[in-house]
Amino acid sequence: MIWTLIIGDRTYSSWSLRGWLLFAAFDIPVQVQQHPMYSPELKGALQGLSSGSMLVPQMVSGGHAVWDTLAMAETLAEAHPHMWPADPVARARARSMVAELHSGFTALRGTCGMNLRHVYDGFEVTDAVQRDLDRLAVLWADADGWLFGGYSIADVFFAPVATRIVTYGLPVSDAMRAYVQKHLEHLPMRQWRAQGLAESFVQPGYDLDLPTRDWPGQRIAARAVALGTPINQTCPYSGKPVRANSLAEIDGRIIGFCNTFCRDKSVADAGAWPLLQPLLV
Description:
Elements: E1 3-7, H1 14-24, E2 30-34, H2 40-46, E3 58-61, E4 64-67, H3 69-79, H4 88-103, H5 106-111, E5 119-120, H6 127-139, H7 153-167, H8 174-185, H9 187-199, E6 212-213, E7 222-225, E8 247-250, E9 253-256, H10 260-268
Parallel strand pairs: 1-2
Antiparallel strand pairs: 1-3, 3-4, 5-6, 7-8, 8-9
Helix pairs in contact: 1-3, 1-7, 4-7, 7-8, 9-10
């Protein structure tokens, strides 16, 4: 069964991120339909689905929609049980943590909306947000790399929380920051953010009037260019011919792509794309 996943803005939609990671982080095939949040295009994509819901994400196959990320996770785990920890006690704890996040942490989620475009300086943490951070410290206390050893649905659900800690410079312990760093280095997470930057869409009302600095992590030097002779004739992702308006200079090499989106996601994080790497050696 091949699912179609309907999502909103990659930069801002935390629940869309969770839905996508349920597929991408476990190598489950999916066809993605992305539309800006609150747009007529997204409304049109959701109208008529069997769910009757106008929220994202939703996964659809054969006219049958599954909505809400908890239901999506359990539906996919029926066919891919390795998405949960194998140990029954760990699996029960992971499910409890996911359910608590799904229904709680309202101060953190409401005050610190996901925004993968910025890292802010000077954000003031409220008492309510601090209480949520204190609870996170308890839940993440036993993390050894990922929360339950190998990557699981629990990590999927906490991925947007990890990005919030980065975006707003939230005060956390060194152990918590090490878990956040696992998410920042996670290839599907890097690919999601790079695609969000390539969308080049700023959702009104999501940016704060605070000083900003660069997103953490080393990046390969890359920029879009208008002129140059590419070292490749076909796009590393699609295999389609390179287009003259889709060139980038990456690590000193002129590389061509089949469209500007492929170019821009590569410029955003060239190291996140295995198919691009042969052109960089």
